[in-house]
Amino acid sequence: MSMQKILVVEDEVKVANAVKKGLEENGFDVEVAYDGRMGKSLATSNQYDLVILDLNLPHNNGYEICEVIRHKNNRVPVIMLTALGGVEDKMQAFELGADDYLVKPFDFRELLARIRVFLKRAGTETPHSTQYKISIADLEIDREKKEVTRGGKKIALTAKEYQLLDFLALHKGKVISKLTIAEKVWDIDFDTGTNVIEVYMNFLRKKIDKDFEQKLLHTKTGMGYYLSEE
């Protein structure tokens, strides 16, 4: 079994080397880019199982690199690792397709735990169901290929958007609370003080419902969200 490959884009040499060393000691194959230009080049020309991005980088910042990765329709998990801890910084990162956001200074054990969650999902995702295709009205989810279409049109989703949609689809018609979504889709140390779930539901609505008369994503005020034909 080949080692899982991780790209670390970080211009603080001490931090980058410490992360590289720690990940290699835990069995990962790690490549480091010390500026945004190199990071962008590596991220778009090579295949990685996960990407760790700083935001403040020379030449190309982490937002730009994340956006380029997502334009490739690449579902590789992206974790932002940055000193910028403001809500607006986080929202911008999530809007561009980041899957997670860890603020410096950080505990390496937490970073490692988050990495393992994403890689476990990517490698073993047949989540608690033998359903390989789910159809709701003209929405189709191919769970083997991780592809989503509506009305025959392919819809590009980030890894986190896909996980959220897939989870709602597996519980078609059932109202799922924010707390349950946080536990099942976000997993670790979810900050209930943020509106990340609302943000991601808006992302999904724009992609799944906006161009279609029949709306499939619904909100039950004060209770949660559900996916249904009605």
List the topology elements.
Elements (H helix, E strand, L loop, with lengths): L4 E5 L3 H13 L3 E5 L2 H10 L4 E4 L8 H10 L6 E5 L4 H9 L4 E4 L4 H17 L8 E4 L2 E4 L4 E4 L2 E3 L3 H12 L7 H9 L9 H13 L8 E4 L3 E4 L3
Parallel strand pairs: 1-2, 1-3, 3-4, 4-5
Antiparallel strand pairs: 6-7, 7-8, 8-9, 10-11
* Fourth-tier CATH superfamily name of the largest domain: Response regulator
Tally of alpha and pi helices:
8
Query: Structural class from helices and strands?
Result: alpha/beta
Question: Helical percent range?
Answer: 40-55%
Under CATH, the topology of the largest domain can be stated as Rossmann fold
| Quaternary form | single chain
% residues in beta strands: 15-25%
Task: Give the averaged pLDDT, no decimals.
Answer: 85
Distance between the termini: 46 Å
Number of domains: 2
- Low-confidence stretches at least 5 residues in length (pLDDT < 50)? 124-130
> Would you count the extended β strands for me?
11
Globally, the shape reads elongated
Can you name the CATH architecture of the largest domain? 3-Layer(aba) Sandwich
Describe the structure.
The protein is an alpha/beta fold. The chain has 2 domains: 115 residues, Response regulator (Rossmann fold, 3-Layer(aba) Sandwich), CATH 3.40.50.2300; 95 residues, Winged helix-like DNA-binding domain superfamily/Winged helix DNA-binding domain (Arc Repressor Mutant, subunit A), CATH 1.10.10.10. The strands form 3 sheets. A 5-stranded parallel β-sheet has the order 2-1-3-4-5, with helices on both faces. A 4-stranded antiparallel β-sheet has the order 6-7-8-9, with helices on one face. Strands 10-11 form a two-stranded antiparallel ribbon. It has 8 helices and 11 strands. About 3% of the residues have low confidence. The protein is 40% helix and 20% strand. Helix 2 runs parallel beside helix 3, helix 6 crosses helix 7 and helix 6 packs across helix 8.
